């Protein structure tokens, strides 16, 4: 039983058993959606009318529903927006007593109430001062009392709205923009606010207000259905949570989907996103029309005066500037030329879209709808002109997005690229992702447009960017599925066989560079050779490098950094060398650096850990970029100490205590020349890349002191980490999936590769290190990658004698490590 049922079963019933009837109505499965909202409004009307009549109201008074209640759209937990309207002739005390007789029963039932008591003049004056009040009064509906008084107010308020439209509509537009900036876009949010986010119910209400002004009107196709779907989702949310909430939280989505009879939470989100996209597109078109009309009105008197003075007709001239064949600019929009014949010109939709994006102009609603309705389908494969116009459209940068959205709203995109339908409005559950799959693909092309100077084939880069995640609409590995789809679509677009293969390869391996660079040992020749084999040519490597950056930048701020950029650039340089015929250096033969040897000598001489801590920066990956744009990518921490058990968990634990995030760790044993007079025995040198979570870096002396204590057992790291986590508990939310440890497929002859996927948490690497020490394996290097709340740690391990682990032993180690992390 929901909290709504519990609360309402214990309520005092109002006149006519309103509480019981309301409860019964809300849980009638056969009546939902608009019929239930209307029935709930009618039931509430009857109850409030009864309260009004029982209070013996004086003459010249009316009870009025405004806002959503005025529209008879009551959700289970909606506020009751009520106005007690009086003509001023009745005694004020009598009106106040009447208000109390109505308001208090509502409060007694635990219903939210937004109320006011005003005369028509007061209501009109308040509406003039407060835009939200004015919007609510546009939907005023009489419930009881003097209906003529309400009708007169409605007429006056509506006339004021139309007369004041040139001033009020820009105010409403600004209000909508501020709300969108604050709440985000509903069609891309994992936990959207169905009412306040852009494309939500508030924007739908704003479109009604614009239509009421008679100044402009919204595109009506699909708008009513979009509003209904959002209202249905809000109803289900109220019923499943028992609260007056509009935020579709992750933990509520499965229950809301079941309440609506949908397959799952993803289906719910996709329906919500589609509705929001319809409202957002209508909002863009409507406000563009409002601004155009207001601009024309402000210019008309001056133009009429100028033209009349010259003997003109008083009508301003209409300028039409040619942009492309069959495409012109008129009044700040891209429209079709008078001579355009879409039914004979199959390339016209792409040509018009490319011209609009290149000119950074919106394509008019009339033009895109005419193209959708009458344009001749493109032949397959496309002619060269169509392919070139698509590339031009994708290469226009940020201006591509609104034009693409216009094409998508009218179904042109799915007609050109049939596989687009599977990714349209598809949610991405990974919080690292900012966008839905389809918008992410367009954003990747936008990012790639700024990288076209770095590749020999910009056209292949832009198309690969548009298609790289196209496989997410299919089951299985999206890169594998995407390769097949990209091959088909590239052939459809008209690329030759060689280019089709390049695009398909880029889609198949679009994650290869970043995953290898952040999760594999780049000093291992097998790592570099495997990438070179997959890529095949320098041209494809160049393409993948740019695509990797564009993809990460379009994913979200957590997906790309100077650190990742530097690692990918290093990998690309090494792979390019192999493709050019160079042999990767053998890391076993590489001598320690001068600094590593100096620290090793000192550690062997003193018998204690020594360390060096220094900032590390990288130049921008793009050689054309300004060198001042470089940023620190972390700190290099080099530690040398006599080889002994427990080094990895001790160092990792100390770093976690000092709030340092580990990005990579390289561990190697250094045998020093015997003629140095420093004693004997191997020295372990650890080269770490770390970054401060926040604040400044700790002093090297403090790190060293804590490391000494951790190694001799006087610093209980697990207890300290547990204390810190207890002092700063994480917010309650979804339960994280369990960790997963696997033996990675790698051809390394240096070590066995173990991959750990787990929830990121302070001390994770410390816990991994303890488990590996208990398993008596040696860690050669560790590579840490974190995306959002997820960590992927790759460990290169060997037996104590430096040999690889046999397959069965490696699998047992993975199981042991997974069990320890649980």
TrEMBL record:
Uridylyltransferase (UTase) activity is inhibited by glutamine, while glutamine activates uridylyl-removing (UR) activity. Its EC number is 2.7.7.59, 3.1.4.-. It catalyses: [protein-PII]-uridylyl-L-tyrosine + H2O = [protein-PII]-L-tyrosine + UMP + H(+); [protein-PII]-L-tyrosine + UTP = [protein-PII]-uridylyl-L-tyrosine + diphosphate. It comes from the Bacteria. SUPFAM superfamilies: ACT-like (SSF55021), HD-domain/PDEase-like (SSF109604), Nucleotidyltransferase (SSF81301), Nucleotidyltransferase substrate binding subunit/domain (SSF81593). Its cofactor is Mg(2+). It holds the Pfam family GlnD_UR_UTase. Residues 437-560 form the HD domain. Keywords: Hydrolase, Magnesium, Multifunctional enzyme, Nucleotidyltransferase, Repeat, Transferase. Residues 636-724, 753-822 form the ACT domain. One of its GO terms (molecular function) is [protein-PII] uridylyltransferase activity. Residues 1-322 are annotated as: Uridylyltransferase. Belongs to the GlnD family. NCBIfam families: PRK03381.1, UTase_glnD. HAMAP family: PII_uridylyl_transf. Has four distinct domains: an N-terminal nucleotidyltransferase (NT) domain responsible for UTase activity, a central HD domain that encodes UR activity, and two C-terminal ACT domains that seem to have a role in glutamine sensing. Modifies, by uridylylation and deuridylylation, the PII regulatory proteins (GlnB and homologs), in response to the nitrogen status of the cell that GlnD senses through the glutamine level. Under low glutamine levels, catalyzes the conversion of the PII proteins and UTP to PII-UMP and PPi, while under higher glutamine levels, GlnD hydrolyzes PII-UMP to PII and UMP (deuridylylation). Thus, controls uridylylation state and activity of the PII proteins, and plays an important role in the regulation of nitrogen metabolism. This is Bifunctional uridylyltransferase/uridylyl-removing enzyme.
